[in-house]
Amino acid sequence: MAEITRILARKNVPKEKSDRILEFIKERSLILSLDETDAVKAGEVAEKEELHLIDGIVYSHVNEHNPLLTGDEHFKNKSFVNLVEDDT
């Protein structure tokens, strides 16, 4: 949600539209919490997988039962990731 909020702000999307987009995502997504244990695991995963920390936080929750659907190229060729490619 933080990254999407940042992108919407950078693109100057009006607040009302931004709120609708975030609500749409929230209703259809698994929102991750981050406690101390998760943060340590995320750091380890980010280092091992050569990911940015924010991507490590996401990827530390990915497994065969919780695959990741993303368009983020940082996850290309990672296990349990379904990469959506832009055809434009």
Care to describe what's here?
- Strands 1-2 form a two-stranded parallel sheet.
- It is globular and about 40 Å long.
- The protein has a domain at 1-31.
- The chain has helices spanning 2-10, 15-28, 36-49, 53-59, and strands at residues 68-70, 81-83.
- The chain contains 4 helices and 2 strands.
- With 88 residues, it is mainly alpha-helical.
Summarize the structure.
The protein is mainly alpha-helical. 50% of the residues lie in helices and 7% in strands.
Percent of residues in β-strands: 5-15%
Mean pLDDT across all residues, rounded? 92
Given helix and strand content, the structural type is: mainly alpha
How far the N terminus sits from the C terminus, by CA atoms, comes to 25 Å
Strands, count: 2
Helix content: 40-55%
**Secondary-structure element series:** HHHHEE
Question: Could you tell me the radius of gyration in angstroms?
Answer: 14 Å
The tally of helices reads 4
Which regions are unreliable across 5 or more consecutive residues at pLDDT < 50? none
Strand order of the largest sheet: 1-2
Shape: globular
Largest sheet: 2 strands, parallel
Quick tags:
two-stranded parallel sheet; mainly alpha; 88 residues; globular
Compile the SSE list and pairings.
Blueprint: H1 2-10, H2 15-28, H3 36-49, H4 53-59, E1 68-70, E2 81-83
Parallel strand pairs: 1-2
Helix pairs in contact: 3-4
